[in-house]
Write a structure and sequence with these properties.
Layout: H1 9-22, H2 43-57, H3 63-71, H4 78-100, E1 114-117, H5 124-135, E2 139-143, H6 159-167, H7 172-175, E3 179-183, H8 202-213, E4 216-218, H9 225-238, E5 245-247, E6 252-257, H10 260-269, H11 283-292, H12 296-301, H13 306-310, E7 314-317, H14 323-332, H15 337-346, E8 351-354, H16 356-369, H17 374-390, E9 398-401, H18 403-407, H19 409-419, H20 421-443, E10 446-449, H21 451-464, H22 468-475, H23 479-490, E11 494-497, H24 499-503, H25 505-528
Helix pairs in contact: 3-4, 10-11, 14-16, 16-17, 20-21, 23-25
Length: 529
């Protein structure tokens, strides 16, 4: 069928998109500029991608260098850092050698895809994210639970590879060296007692198996009409078909999960005495010890395909975090939650610090959350949520959180505000002055607050827990209309605000307006006489 045939579905789609672009219905953000020509990547993006590819071609990092870099951000997990560092170096050294000597690509190579085992919040995702940042390759993170076997409800696993291309700004040459990280991989273990087809288990494993080994993936899915139209229009412009596939040969896959069911299987298989448990070990620590003893047969018995597990030869167990580890995360890790909170408060001009005793108490409470490092955020949000809400509107410019602050945050906040009440009142007075300036600039009318009126507004702000701006905007919302009437009647443009006006603004404004009409009428009679 000819491309010029009006019944050709591709021709119909092309004309449809041209009409949409002509009518302005397709936004430029979709990379469809007027005229139907595909936008080229900007020079900045091209230069950035070229620099990243250069890093891969000249990859010279050593395992200890990667481990030392990870130490800056992730506390503990020394074995995981070591295993990941070696796997990363082996993988990207091989990629570099294949670039230097293309014939090496034809040789058999067992990719060192990695499986991280361990509870939530111990740094599994952060480890992989930091490695990708160090190397400069595209990084995609996803949960295994959102995928289903092709043809059923859910995402296609090949979308992970397409996401790499998207993150690489469409540069397939860069995307083919990316890292794909899949969390909660233990959730796709196929159940042996299912009646019917297991669309979220075995089927997903089989599809992931193809990606982890080596396959060609279309960079546009069958439902991506915009992507297909973009390819057609690029062909019209250049006369060349764009590269439509990406090879997964050099994409490194890292998966992770808690694998609690596997730990239980190992426990049933071996005796506790065989691995030397002591009475003082927690349930989480025991689970980690069992996972260290896990063998391929345990994963197969737990619902994983032998071929799938075989493509994940590098396995390492991440350790459970105790209170001391969480404390170390707060004080030693770069970009820790404590550093984030300091930045948050500094955005309001507030210097925030925490005593060592307070840090220890936060760590102890976070451990009770049983969510690893994520528990730190949970605890700090509960403690400091009202501090973030109230302090930016006060005159307080610094405060130190103590252990007492963590134990009784609301009481400590009230004491902090009370101790700074004098400076707080000064700030509130300054806000009244700022309101009068805004009012004069907007309406060419001057408000002069008496000292008594200022004191009353300050007291209202404190007792009603409202900002001065909100109080003034509410009380004097119609004053410009009434005062302009007065100005027209008697020429007055400056008005004293008394405590009576603050207490009953509408009533007092009405009186002032009536008085202005009376004065205006009296002046008119005087002129007539």
């Amino acid at each position: 069928m000819s491309d010029d045939n009006p019944d050709n579905p591709i021709e119909k789609m092309r004309k449809h998109f041209e009409e949409m672009m002509r009518d302005g219905k397709i936004h430029p953000a979709m990379n469809f500029p007027p005229g139907g020509q595909v936008q080229e990547a900007g020079n900045d993006e091209k230069g950035e991608n070229a620099e990243k590819i250069k890093l891969i071609r000249e990859f010279k990092l050593k395992p200890r260098e990667i481990r030392d870099f990870l130490d800056r951000f992730v506390i503990k997990q020394q074995e995981a850092k070591k295993v990941l560092a070696v796997a990363i170096c082996d993988h990207y050294n091989h990629a570099r050698q294949c670039i230097e000597t293309p014939s090496l690509q034809e040789r058999e190579y067992s990719k060192q895809n990695v499986m991280l085992l361990g509870p939530t919040g111990v740094g599994k995702t952060y480890l992989v994210r930091c490695i990708a940042r160090l190397i400069g390759v595209p990084f995609v993170k996803s949960d295994a639970t959102k995928f289903s076997e092709t043809g059923y409800v859910g995402h296609d696993v090949e979308d992970l590879v397409r996401d790499l291309v998207r993150i690489a700004n469409g540069d397939i040459n860069l995307a083919q060296y990316g890292i794909i990280y899949i969390d909660e991989i233990d959730k796709i273990a196929s159940a042996s007692n299912l009646s019917g087809r297991d669309v979220s288990g075995r089927g997903v494993q089989v599809n992931l198996l193809k990606l982890m080994e080596e396959t060609e993936v279309n960079i546009q899915s069958q439902t991506d009409l915009l992507g297909q139209m973009e390819a057609i229009m690029q062909f019209q412009k250049t006369g060349k078909s764009p590269q439509r596939t990406i090879n997964t040969r050099h994409i490194l896959f890292i998966v992770s999960g808690a694998f609690e069911a596997i730990a239980e299987r190992v426990r049933q298989r071996i005796s506790t005495s065989a691995i030397g448990f002591t009475g003082g070990e927690t349930k989480e620590q025991q689970s980690g010890e069992y996972l260290k003893q896990a063998q391929t047969r345990d994963f197969i018995a737990g619902g994983f395909e032998p071929e799938f597990i075989g493509r994940l030869p590098v396995r390492v167990v991440c350790e459970h975090l105790i209170a001391e580890d969480l404390r170390q995360i707060m004080v030693s890790s770069e970009d820790s939650i404590l550093t984030q909170y300091k930045r948050d408060f500094s955005g309001y001009g507030i210097d925030f610090s925490v005593t060592s005793e307070a840090i220890a108490e936060i760590a102890r409470r976070a451990m009770e959350e049983q969510t690893g490092a994520r528990g730190l955020m949970t605890v700090m949000e509960k403690v400091f949520r009202n501090y973030k809400f109230q302090l930016p509107s006060t005159a307080i410019k610094s405060f130190e959180a103590t252990r007492e602050t963590i134990l009784a945050p609301e009481t400590a906040l009230k004491e902090l505000v009370h101790a700074n009440r004098d400076s707080e009142r000064i700030l509130l007075r300054e806000e009244i002055s700022a309101f009068t300036k805004r009012f004069k600039n907007m309406h060419a009318l001057e408000l002069v607050f008496s000292d008594e009126a200022i004191d009353l507004l300050v007291e209202m702000s404190v007792t009603q827990d409202k900002s001065i701006r909100a109080l003034c905007d509410t009380k004097f919302k119609d004053f410009q209309h009434g005062l302009k009437i007065i100005a027209n009647n008697i020429g007055q443009t400056s008005f004293e605000i008394t405590p009576k006006i603050v207490e009953n603004p509408d009533e007092e404004l009405s009186k002032l307006i009536v008085e202005s009409f009376q004065k205006s009428g009296a002046a008119d009679k005087k002129e007539q006489n």
